[in-house]
Amino acid sequence: xxxxxxxxxxxxxxxxxxxxxxxxxxxxxxxxxxxxxxxxxxxxxxxxxxxxxxxxxxxxxxxxxxxxxxxxxxxxxxxxxxxxxxxxxxxxxxxxxxxxxxxxxxxxxxxxx
Length: 113
Ligand code: HEC
Description:
There is one protein chain. This protein has a single domain (about 25-105), classed as Orthogonal Bundle (Cytochrome Bc1 Complex, Chain D, domain 2). With about 110 residues, the protein is mainly alpha-helical. The protein has helices at about 1-20, 25-40, 60-65, 70-80, 95-105. Helices cover about 60% and strands about 0% of the residues. Mean pLDDT is about 80; it is low at about 10-20. The N and C termini lie far apart (about 45 Å). Heme C binds near residues 38, 56 and 89. The site of heme C (HEC) has 19 residues, from helix 2 and helix 4.
């Protein structure tokens, strides 16, 4: 009986997460905040939603496309040289790590292309 209750609580946890609480580890939470501020003009940065700029992949798609280290390197390049209509964004190395941690925490959709 008690273990049944525990399972229920565990099953309820992801639902609580989508209801607005922030269950992410500190690094991912910082990356999430950064992504909202700096990247959301073009990319869908949330677990759901459509990118404002149709050419910019939703971050959840990037999660499935890069292994963590490649993503971090790519983000470091983007911070240094800018990308597309975006000027270089002065992200510190630890901020790059945070954004990469956040992106990789997203669940890539089954239909990721
Ligand atoms: C001004 C619009 C704009 C902003 C702001 C922007 N991006 Fe992008 N980004 C794009 C577009 C457009 C593409 C896709 C281009 C393509 O695939 O041809 C892209 C692609 C990417 C890719 C995939 C690149 C690759 O080849 O692997 C990554 C990673 C990425 N963006 C990260 C970010 C991050 C992180 C931020 C915020 C720090 C950000 N972008 C902000 C427009 C933007």
